[in-house]
Amino acid sequence: MRQRARKRTPVGRISGRSGKWQWTKLGLCNAGDRLFQLGYKGRNHFAESLVQRSMPSQLFPKRIVDVLGRMRSGVTGPVLVRADDGLTYVAKHESGHAPSIRASEFIWISIAGLVGLPAPTPEVLIDNEGRSFFGTRREVSAIDAAIAQMSLLSGRVLRGGAHLSRIYAFDLFAANWDRNAGNYLVLDDGGGSLALFAIDFSHVSVHPGMAPDAHDPMRSSNNATRGNFPQVVAPYGSDIPAALEIADRLTNLPIKAVDVILTELPPDWLAQPERDSVRSWWDGRERSIRAAALSQGLQNGTLI
After folding, report:
1. Cα 168 to Cα 146: distance, rounded to the nearest angstrom
2. Which of 112, 141, 289, 303 has the fewest CB atoms within 10 Å, measured from its CB?
3. Is the pLDDT at 253 greater than 70, yes or no?
4. From CA 304, how far away is CA 226, in angstroms rounded?
5. Do both 132 and 271 map to the same domain?
6. Quick one: what percent of the chain has pLDDT higher than 70?
7. 220 contacts: CB under 8 Å, gap ≥ 6
8. What is the pLDDT of residue 58?
């Protein structure tokens, strides 16, 4: 019997200052491809979610209609804005306090979502001057920062050990040196339970190979991520299997998924040589070497 041709889904990107969407051949992929072609044999649910990501997550940028003021926390200058969809967002632009703030946030929050971490959805926002901002929805269920930190440190987060360990493994892999008790977003699910969101990758290099040794928590313990994790996880206990699962998913993340992220990234957020460097790192041996070192350090106790 003759098989029906599978539908091919094009992928696009937002064009610089115009905010218009441009279609590109880079992201063309077959939505019906066999899961083993994505390199995820036996991991059906996760691989299926990656196939769905072959369609752009945002066809058009949201336009900022009101600037509500600067956030009280954050050295990268986050601003609270309202967009033309009526919703409120936390928006970030380049501030000089960290390189490639918008690109780093977009890339790492996108990857966090792909490997199953609780994380906000990355958005592209445009103001009335044509400037593009990285944005995430303001979570209305987020509790006050001071109460959130107290709740986190007193053991009130549901399955806190597993979630903290998963985020910690991701931070180590990404070379995020700045995770502390104050930059977890704690959400109230309305049923009396508290949950965690992984936020704030502003200080993270666009790929781990670009991180200086002094800012790499896998090479140095003198940083907020390594120093604060024992304190925040203490009320729950660390969960090594949960952390190892994240390392495994990062090892097996299909390069096609990274291609989609880079295609969705506005062109003025990251120059082409850096984009090529990101793709080369994920498609090369450096990724698997780092993931293997992460798994080994989690198992032998040198990283946890």
Report:
1. 21
2. 289
3. yes
4. 8
5. no
6. 78
7. 177, 213, 214, 226
8. 63
Residue 149 makes CB contacts below 8 A (sequence gap 6+) with: 181, 182, 186
DSSP-derived letter for residue 142 is: B
264 and 180, same structural domain? yes
* 156 and 31 within one domain: no
Q: Quick one: three-class SS letters along 50-114? A: HHHCCCCCCCCCEEEEEEEEECCCCCCCCEEEEECCCCEEEEECCCCCCCCHHHHHHHHHHHHHH
Q: Which domain holds residue 68?
A: 62-137
Query: Are residue 151 and residue 290 in the same domain, yes or no?
Result: yes
Q: How many domains does the chain have?
A: 3
Q: What confidence score (pLDDT) does residue 293 get? A: 94
Is position 185 within any domain?
Answer: yes
pTM to 2 decimal places: 0.79
Higher pLDDT, 304 or 249: 249
Q: Do residue 154 and residue 82 come from a single domain?
A: no
CA dist 145 to 119, 149, 151, Å? 17, 6, 10
CA gap 26, 54 in Å, rounded? 11
